Amino acid sequence: MFGITIRRGVAGVFAAGALTGAAGALAVPSASAAPDCDAVGLNRAIAAVSAQTADYLASHPSANEAISNAGAQGGDAEATIRNYFVAHPTEWADLQRIASPLRTLRAQCDVDVAPTEIARLYDAMAS
User: Residues of the signal sequence (predicted)?
Assistant: First the structure.
């Protein structure tokens, strides 16, 4: 259980840095917004990016290991992850391409897609 919590936290830190650049919130636009800007569109985009990120990390074991173990040593997990990707810019660029639908959605719908808020939603649904 502790390992899962660490990985969730580290993944959230990684995703927050990679996808939003700062902490934010998951905002649900008004009903008059374009169809892709509603909760369905946001969740589909998040699901697609999550699945592609999982596939990418499965095929790049060193990146997966760096993210999975970043918080295990008790240091700054975000700095550990950042240092890994500074040393592996091609992998960073690959993950940025994977995340591009979220950046597009963020720009077109004027919403922040923040992993911490999404994690809170899933935690609430799992209770």
Answer: 1-33
Question: What are the structural domain ranges in the chain?
Answer: 2-126
> What residues have CB less than 8 Å from 99, skipping those under 6 apart?
18, 19, 49, 53
Alpha-carbon gap, residue 90 to 14, rounded angstroms: 16
For residue 13, the model assigns a pLDDT of 43
What is the per-residue pLDDT across 32-81, written as a single tens digit (0 to 9) for each?
445 478 878 888 888 899 999 999 999 999 999 999 988 786 778 888 89
Cβ 7 vs Cβ 68: under 8 Å: yes
Task: For residues 50 and 122, give the distance between their C-alpha atoms in angstroms, rounded to a whole number.
Answer: 14
In whole angstroms, give the CA distance from residue 64 to residue 24: 25
- CB hemisphere CA count around 17 (13 angstroms): 16
> What are 51's two structure tokens?
């699945």
